[in-house]
């Protein structure tokens, strides 16, 4: 006689979606969701959430894609300060 399959938890569902469950545990989970509506709904919600997170992550620009302002103003500002100091010394 087989033991009853426990209901899914969010952690176990996440492991399944990430492919971290052993094959026999994944098959057991799949069989359980075919007969348990609440667990099937939880699996569907978590799968949708994972898909949405991937979409958001894909839309965020990577570090290399971020446009940064040119740094030309730093040397120009340093030169202006140096000229002001030099002018104050000579005057």
Element layout with pairings:
Elements: H1 10-17, H2 23-35, H3 37-59, H4 73-90
Helix pairs in contact: 1-3, 2-3
Organism: Corallococcus llansteffanensis
Pfam families: zf-HC2
Protein name: Zf-HC2 domain-containing protein
What letter string, H or E per element, gives the SSE order? HHHH
The portion of residues forming beta strands comes to: under 5%
CATH fold name of the domain at 1-62:
Arc Repressor Mutant, subunit A
- What percent of the residues sit in helical stretches (DSSP H or I)? 55-70%
> What's the overall geometry?
rod-shaped
Structural class: mainly alpha
Radius of gyration: 29 Å
Task: Quote the distance from N terminus to C terminus.
Answer: 100 Å
Report mean pLDDT, rounded to a whole number. 81
* Highest CATH level, the class of the domain at 1-62: Mainly Alpha
The largest pleated sheet is described as:
none
Please tally the β strands and state the result. 0
Number of helices: 4
The CATH architecture designation of the domain at 1-62 is: Orthogonal Bundle
Low-confidence stretches: none
What features would you describe in this structure?
The chain is mostly helical. Helix content is 68%, strand content 0%. It has a domain of 62 residues: Arc Repressor Mutant, subunit A (Orthogonal Bundle). The chain contains 4 helices and no strands. Helix 1 crosses helix 3 and helix 2 packs across helix 3. It is rod-shaped and about 90 Å long. The relative contact order is 0.09.
């Amino acid at each position: 006689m087989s033991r009853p399959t426990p209901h899914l938890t969010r952690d176990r569902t996440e492991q399944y979606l990430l492919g971290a469950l052993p094959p026999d545990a994944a098959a057991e989970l799949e069989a359980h969701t075919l007969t348990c509506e609440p667990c099937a709904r939880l699996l569907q919600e978590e799968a949708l959430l994972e898909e949405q997170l991937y979409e958001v992550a894909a839309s965020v620009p990577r570090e290399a894609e971020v446009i940064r302002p040119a740094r030309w103003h730093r040397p120009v500002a340093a030169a202006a300060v140096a000229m002001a100091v030099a002018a104050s010394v000579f005057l």
